[in-house]
Design a protein that fits this description.
The complex is a heterodimer of chains A (237) and B (250).
Chain A (H helix, E strand, L loop, with lengths): L2 H46 L2 H16 L2 H16 L13 H27 L3 H8 L4 H32 L10 H12 L2 H30 L12
Helix pairs in contact in A: 1-2, 1-4, 1-6, 1-7, 1-8, 2-4, 3-4, 4-6, 5-6, 6-8, 7-8
Chain B lengths: L1 H18 L9 E6 L1 E2 L3 E3 L5 E2 L1 H13 L3 E6 L4 H6 L5 E7 L2 H4 L2 E3 L4 E3 L1 E6 L14 E6 L3 H10 L6 E6 L2 H7 L7 E5 H8 L4 E6 L5 E8 L3 H16 L1 H9 L4
Parallel strand pairs in B: 1-5, 1-6, 10-11, 10-12
Antiparallel strand pairs in B: 2-3, 3-4, 6-14, 7-14, 8-14, 9-12, 9-13
Helix pairs in contact in B: 2-8
The chains are: A mainly alpha (237), B alpha/beta (250).
Chain lengths: 237, 250
């Protein structure tokens, strides 16, 4: 690693590299949110659904957990979305954007993983709660919505911070389809100097800082919303 | 009144016809460039597209009266991006090869490069010995040079191992520490990676030089003709010499 030669270039290109944080975080937060919105119904369906519903959700989870992110990025960007953007009725929807492809891939994959986090949390709750709520006259849907989910979501936060750090690191793969996030930008500048290693280090430090800050924030959230005396064993540290 | 409005429609039609040139002239053409291939196409420290090809295309765009945007991309996805309409052409130090000609059309060649082997400055083996004594030769995956090495390895008497990397730069990390004994690449890159480092070129591969050309979709013949005209005009202009000097080519 030739730091003497690359330091000035790193310094000069720092604003450009840091600009990638916006793209990285947009990808991560967007995917977290998409994963949350899809993951909750998937989890509920997997626990309470009929056999057919459970079967379909099982296939979804199996597919998105089974195909590597990089492969999915190529399939979505050069395959599905490229095909859809040729349909005249869908033109103008921005379907040709690499960011959208990356967001969908990360979000749909995250939904598969998040659904398993939520499913675990739902199943960790005593079964009697549902029966008690029904005994009070609630329908199953009402009970799940107002008794089970509020507790399950709280229990999911530790699993969620895991998911955040994994998503953050997976988001670096979006460089492959040209999203200008942190990884793309450091690789770009590294090519100017023919010295890839110092720039890999810069990217590493940035990803570390983002991971650390995100996990700290989720820890704080966990502490704020916890139900006193009721937490999953070992979830608070 | 009715006559007047009909005249208006007719006038509008004539105007439309007068201003409707080829389809490409009405929109901004997108040029896909390799984000990391200095001095031909790259992104500078401020994040702006730059390089020999960027300047050349800007000149052509100016003379031919179209607007252009340079889109930096990962090299692996650049031909798929062209053929799925994400970009309109590729002007970024792309070698004209038979393989690529099957999926895209190329303009006339505007620059020639040879394939060379770069080794550590203290390497004692000759160019021929590098390929007959079981040495490890690095190369960027998927490049022309990679194909060349694969073909060479099949020839009788050859004895070397090909080590493929994601980029030439990565292979140059392994060369000084001895994981590989040489790295094969375009002469244009070789000059860049040797700058200020203890490497030398040990020899040039015995194959015809590659020409660089701009790539367009198979269907875009009109665009191809326009770019060819532009290139010919540029290469005949004094600006061409100035451009090559600016980017230290030749």
């Amino acid at each position: 690693m030739d730091f003497a030669k690359t330091m000035p270039v790193i310094w000069e290109s720092l604003p450009f590299i840091l600009g990638g944080i916006t793209w990285t975080l947009s990808l991560v937060f967007g995917a977290m949110l998409l994963g949350l919105c899809l993951g909750i119904p998937l989890a509920v369906g997997q626990v309470y659904g009929t056999r057919t519903v459970r079967g379909f959700i099982g296939i979804y989870v199996w597919l998105f957990r089974g195909i590597p992110i990089l492969v999915q990025l190529y399939l979505f960007y050069f395959g599905i979305l490229a095909y859809l953007s040729q349909v005249p009725q869908l033109a103008g929807l921005g379907l040709d954007s690499a960011f959208l492809a990356a967001l969908l891939v990360l979000g749909l994959t995250s939904a598969a993983y998040q659904s398993q986090i939520f499913r675990g949390s739902i199943q960790a709750l005593p079964e009697g709660q549902l029966k008690a709520a029904q005994a009070l006259g609630m329908t199953e849907a009402q009970a799940v919505r107002s008794i089970i989910l509020p507790q399950a979501l709280r229990l999911s936060i530790p699993g969620w911070s895991n998911e955040y750090s994994i998503l953050l690191k997976d988001s670096a793969l979006a460089f492959a389809i040209g999203v200008m996030e942190i990884m793309s930008r450091t690789r770009t500048v590294a090519a100017l100097t023919h010295e890839p290693l110092p720039f890999a280090l810069v990217a590493g430090v940035l990803f570390y800082l983002l991971t650390h800050m995100g996990i700290r924030a989720l820890k704080t959230l966990e502490r704020k919303v916890r139900i006193p005396g009721y937490a999953r064993q070992g979830s608070m540290s | 009144m009715a006559k007047g409005s009909r005249f208006g429609v007719l006038a509008a039609l004539v105007l439309c016809l007068a201003f409707s040139g080829p389809a490409w002239a009405e929109r901004t053409l997108v040029n896909g460039i390799d984000f990391g291939f200095p001095p031909f196409g790259f992104v500078d420290t401020q994040g702006n597209p730059a390089g020999f090809d960027v300047d050349a295309v800007n000149w052509i765009a100016d003379k031919k009266g179209f607007s252009v945007r340079h889109q930096p991309m990962d090299w692996d996805g650049i031909i798929p991006a062209l053929n799925t309409n994400r970009i309109d052409f590729i002007a970024s130090g792309m070698s004209i090869t038979e393989e690529r000609k099957k999926v895209v059309n190329f303009t006339i060649p505007y620059y020639e490069v040879t394939q060379v082997l770069v080794v550590n400055a203290n390497e004692t083996a000759t160019f021929d010995e590098m390929f007959t004594t079981g040495k490890r030769i690095g190369v960027q995956r998927g490049t022309n040079t990679h194909t060349l090495l694969i073909d060479m390895a099949k020839e009788p008497g050859m004895n070397f191992e090909i080590v493929a990397y994601d980029s030439t730069d990565l292979s140059m990390q392994d060369l000084p520490i001895g994981r590989i004994h040489g790295s094969a690449m375009d002469s244009s890159i070789a000059r860049e990676v040797k700058r200020g480092r203890p490497f030398k070129t040990v020899g040039t591969f015995d194959v015809p030089p590659d020409g660089y050309g701009y790539a367009v979709r198979k269907t875009d013949t009109e665009l191809l003709n326009m770019l060819n005209e532009g290139l010919k005009k540029l290469m005949a202009d004094p600006y061409w010499v100035e451009l090559k000097q600016r980017w230290e080519l030749e």
